[in-house]
Amino acid sequence: MKTSSLLIQLCPRSHASRRGLSAIGALVEDFTSWLHTRNYTPGSILRNLRALAPLVRWWRRRRVDELHQVTVDELANAHEYFFRRQPVVGQAVRLLRFFMLECQIVPASKPRRLSASEMEWGRFAAHLRQVRGLSENTTIGHLGRLRRFLTFLRFDQRPQAIAKLRREEIESFLRQVALTNNRHSMQHVVATLRSFLRWQYVQGVLDRPLHLQMDTPRVYQLEHLPQAMPWDQVRTLLRSIDRSKPDGLRDFTMLYLVAAYGLRVGEVVRLRLEDIDWRNATLRVGQTKTRQVLQLPLTDQAGDILQRYLRQGRPQTERRELFLRLRAPIGPLNPASVHAIKRWIRRRDLKIKPVGNHSLRHAFAVHLLRQGVSIKAIGGAMGHGDVRSTAIYLRLAIDDLRAVGLPVPDAMEIPVCLKSPKHYSFPIIRPARARQSPLVRFRSGFGASMQRYISIKQAMGRHYASEKTVLLKWDAWLYRFQGRDDTVASKSFQRWIETLTHLRPAVRRARMRIVRNFLLFHTRDHGVGFIPDVASFPKKSPAKPPRLVSEAEMSRVLATARQLTPAIDNPIRAQTMRIAFILSFCCGLRRGELLRIRLEHFDAKQKLLRIEGTKFHKSRLVPLHESVTDELKDYLEQRRRKRLPLELNSFLIGTGRHPESQSAYTSCRLNQVWRQLCGAAGVLDEKGRPPRLHDLRHSFAVNALSRWYAKGDDVQAKLPHLATYLGHVNATSTHYYLHLTPQLREAASQCFRSRFVHLLQKEGRV
Fold first, then answer.
1. What's the whole-model pTM score?
2. Residue 464, class by beta-carbon neighbours within 10 Å (0-12 exposed, 13-18 middle, 19+ buried)?
3. Active site residue 721
4. Per annotation, catalytic residue among 245, 289, 504, 735
5. Is 419 a known active-site residue?
6. Are 728 and 766 in contact (CB under 8 A)?
7. How confident is the model at residue 418 (pLDDT cuts 50, 70, 90)?
8. Which of 15, 36, 211, 361 is catalytic?
């Protein structure tokens, strides 16, 4: 249809009355053409034209009858009035405002007088952009968090609030924000405050560097497992998308590029037509995270899918973006608004757990990893600059990690000469101390400062329970010997240390460091006082070498565990202890990880355990050996026969017949049983002492290496898998568990000889 006759064709009977509307009648023709050029359908255009009549009637009541009386403020007032009363009219007012501003029919509203907070935001934003060179999105994030801080200070009413800022106000703000933010979000809040306070200190507004006196939350690497859809589910999802309609064809093309090339959604929606090089069959991708350009080969299948989308799914428009909105006004997609996966899972009612679009990128990496592609090659395909960025996907390579786990040691018969574990016990090393009632409040002169210290640490996401106990005991000692005096001298600190002589040097050092950290916090507001010298603390004692447990010795321990008699609260005590020590030896689990496993963490179908919230808040998957899985199934069957709790939230290593008593074994109780079994099975060191329960983790690492050497595998290539299985960030942390035993030394020598001795023989060196 021709643009000049568009209004007549849409409104053949009422076009004259619409042109005669007061105030905006002269604009109706141009407004109709403007909507048409932005791909609004005839029905949408007609609906917006009909909504102009209520707007004109409302303006008449306000005596707005001429075009020159229509201002930006009048349009804003009209939108606010109709927004909730008549949403259709409110939408028409919004479009009319965009039209009049774009065509410069009304001048932009005069800038209003900025508030003190807005002026401060503007100056800080200029500093972030011009001095620090931050991107626009990062700057917007900083300003949003700063806005909340200035509102907390009531900066508009108190312009001198920053100059008179005290550390207590900062701590109060952080405690308030911590109620609605996790550790990761709190880290951004603290970063914004530090940057802002540093800028204020450099400008001379603050007279002391408050940014150096702020604690930050601890956020560790690899805390959360990446979410990746199984590859068969990826195929099911792509096949389920209806490609007969433009929206389905667009979503299918986007998700295919994410799954087939491992692209980020932000990279896909920013693709332009010129990024496709049809002649050279390449796809040019501008990476949003690294700001690098990635050249990817355009496969035949990808080219066919893109051609079909361009011909049948993409709207006819002059815009150069590859993927566009299909509803008017047509424009580029926002990465945050793309929820294609969840939308099609919901539409097709697929039996797939709803996940984000980024899970397809993870699925791409894991799929390549299971195909045998090297980590370096995967990193190159995904545009990673560091191999450590790609190594996180090892945590999802279940098949590769399953080869790390050990099988259950072969069963053996118990010799008659061994003592029963029921009657075997070791002497108590330390006498039992009288139990005292726990301390609950601070009473010394440092009490208020200690309470502040603990509250800010907990607001930063730290548990700080053991540290609070140490400070409560030190506070009780101070109150006993110096009352409410809030000073600490070297002599009084030394007297307190003398009360800790019954503890091991490592424990004494830890408690002294806790007190020292508090004193550093206290002196921030109370001047420089006594700060203990770390050099005077007990020296770190070298780690006790582990007593490694062989497979034969572990087999004797497990056979001895079958002799354990049932307990009052656990009729299958023998089976419970047996499965606990199997998991410790065959999977290298920490004691705390073992005791926190619940039945919901065991996936019998995939034969793996899910370890959540372990050391440094990490989570990981632990694929099990076939024999370990069978043992777990037998153990759960025993629980079912004895009618013990089988709810998903029940502890795997637990006691109790009723859901309300699903308590896990304590560390001391588990350790006591372990010592008894080792003594009965004769698994002792040269001094007649049993190995520690944690030594099973060391034994697991060494036995895994021995198995790889025996098979002739490339041990260096396997070390990242071992580190991932144990829950370490990299192989450097795993090195602590790799002890060179005589058997391991011999296996390494044999491996070296088989691989390189023929090269030395050729050169005449052997």
1. 0.79
2. middle
3. no
4. 289
5. no
6. no
7. very low
8. 361
